[in-house]
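Operator note (shift B, R.M.): manual run for Transcription factor requested after the automated queue skipped it. Running by hand, logging everything below so the morning shift can see what happened. Input copied straight from the record, untouched. If output looks odd, do not overwrite the archive copy; leave it for review.
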Amino acid sequence: MSSLITDDEIRDETELVWLEDVEELDYVRQSLDRLPTRRGRPAYHRDGRMIGYARLGPRAKPSRSSGTFRRRVFWLLPHDRDTDPDGLYASGAPAEAVDPRTLAPGVKGHKTERSKGGPLGG
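Run finished. Output pasted below as returned.
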């Protein structure tokens, strides 16, 4: 969940790579995934689609036990508002959702009125 991501877990981010135009999205889901590299496009193993991912700088250290890096991945599921506007999230948003306009490298972002299904200006 977004609220469980801490600032020190994302401090080594240098770039967010967007695979879609996030200006059109009310929210994206974010998670910290264990990935084998600092920068490459991660494999995607969820339903739905990957919207973007973070790249880490050279100071990022791999896990001592697994050799992997914790990196943010941004994604949406088939029942999210962008593809099912009258569905489960017609109002409200999933716990791990944030407004993509509030994200930046090293910034975990937050929900806004827009991401919670409110007016577009919010």
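Quick read of the result: The first strand starts at residue 13 and ends at 18. Residues 2-102 form one domain.
Leaving this for review. - R.M.
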